[in-house]
Amino acid sequence: MKHRVRFLIALVGFFCVLALSVNADAKTKVIPEPTIAAKSAIAVDADSGQILYQKNANQPRAIASISKLMTVYIVHQQIKANKLAWNDKVKISAELAKLSTASGLTNVPLTAGKAYSVRQLVNATLVESANAAALALGQKVAGTATRFAALMNKTAHQIGIHDGHFYNASGLTNKLTGKLALKHVNASAENLLSASDIALLAQKLLQTFPRVIDITKKTSSTFYGTTMTGHNQLLGNHNLGQGVRVDGLKTGTSDKAGASFVGSATANGHHRIITVVLGARNKSASDPARFIQTAKLMKWVYAAHQPIKLSAKTGITGIGKAQIPDGKQTTVLPVVKTTHWVWANNGTSAKQIRGQYVKKPAKLTSPTKKGTYVGYAQLSINGKRLQYIGHSAGKLMMVTNQSVKKANFFVRLWRAILRLF
């Protein structure tokens, strides 16, 4: 009888453990990464730059009209610096007017000698992907196509892009820009960036010019009486997940680039992500392949991940106390200076996020004020370090959580004596 009771208790215990194990696995179940049918791809958090997915993300490739994001970024920089204004007029040259009606190129018609506002040309550049409009903006900013190309490359370096190269404001091959083509440059030369660098450019654009979304979310617009139809087939798509909405950013298409797309989306108006798909199938002008692959990537990001909030002034597991040898108290707890969101697999808890100093922090001296810099920390989950775009991204500033006064002379003397033994 006793053996039966023991057996039943053991059996019940086994099934309880099994049930708990199944529930734990269900909570932390990892949804496999999707197979993205494109040459390169990446998905990142728009604020922090945390990488959520990547495929050949660091290989520079032709980007075609995605280049126009850099053109608009520079235009906005010029406006912020009061070197340009939205209502400034841009006079169109004969070369630009001819290019604006060239067969096979996306454009809005421009009239030679006529002046158009910077605002209207930016709208045409982003909504219709108008090549001549983008080139006109470049000329307005720098005076010549050559000088604007140099400015594009200089700006790229400033924001941390070092492996790509820009030849013109539109993304056309050098030959297709006609009389605006750069001399001593191959006719087939085309702007090059990696998926990672495009994501970095898009992130900088959204951070410095958030209202660009007001333009890129448009399905159509008008340009001096001409109706412009946008190319983003994901606008208004409600099949991406609960509350997920796409509002940008830019397509790019050429023989070398294939069909490419930089996407921007939010879930219920929050937690914006940026996706880049380069070199998707391109059988025709209406081939939806790049949008199908982008939708697949966006759905996976929001379905497989949860954003975890690390609030300002909270500690991180793994970050030890900072030393203050001459303070009234000799240690102080470092905390996160600003709020930070971390994307993790569903079921992950904040306790699983650990931090480690990038460099061992120097010992602090007292008196130490609350909020004093201690060091930068990198994060990991289950032993895997989180990855970010940008050289300085992913480093959280840690600061002291309280002020510490200096110990009196006799206490400091006694500590010094103790250190001798």
UniProtKB/TrEMBL annotation:
Its EC number is 3.4.16.4. This is serine-type D-Ala-D-Ala carboxypeptidase. GO terms for biological process: cell wall organization; peptidoglycan biosynthetic process; proteolysis; regulation of cell shape. PANTHER family: D-ALANYL-D-ALANINE CARBOXYPEPTIDASE, D-ALANYL-D-ALANINE CARBOXYPEPTIDASE DACA. GO terms for molecular function: serine-type D-Ala-D-Ala carboxypeptidase activity. InterPro entries: Beta-lactam/transpept-like, Peniciliin-bd_prot_C_sf, Peptidase_S11, Peptidase_S11_C, Peptidase_S11_C_sf, Peptidase_S11_N. Residues 1-26 form the signal peptide. Residues 319-404 form the Peptidase S11 D-Ala-D-Ala carboxypeptidase A C-terminal domain. It is an enzyme of class 3 (hydrolase). Residues 32-281 form the Peptidase S11 D-alanyl-D-alanine carboxypeptidase A N-terminal domain. The gene is dacC_2. Substrate binds at K250. Removes C-terminal D-alanyl residues from sugar-peptide cell wall precursors. Pathway: Cell wall biogenesis; peptidoglycan biosynthesis. Keywords: Carboxypeptidase, Cell shape, Cell wall biogenesis/degradation, Hydrolase, Peptidoglycan synthesis, Protease, Signal. Belongs to the peptidase S11 family. SUPFAM superfamilies: beta-lactamase/transpeptidase-like, Penicillin-binding protein associated domain. It catalyses: Preferential cleavage: (Ac)2-L-Lys-D-Ala-|-D-Ala. Also transpeptidation of peptidyl-alanyl moieties that are N-acyl substituents of D-alanine. Gene3D superfamilies: D-Ala-D-Ala carboxypeptidase, C-terminal domain (2.60.410.10), DD-peptidase/beta-lactamase superfamily (3.40.710.10). Coiled coil: none annotated. The active site is at S65, K68, S129.
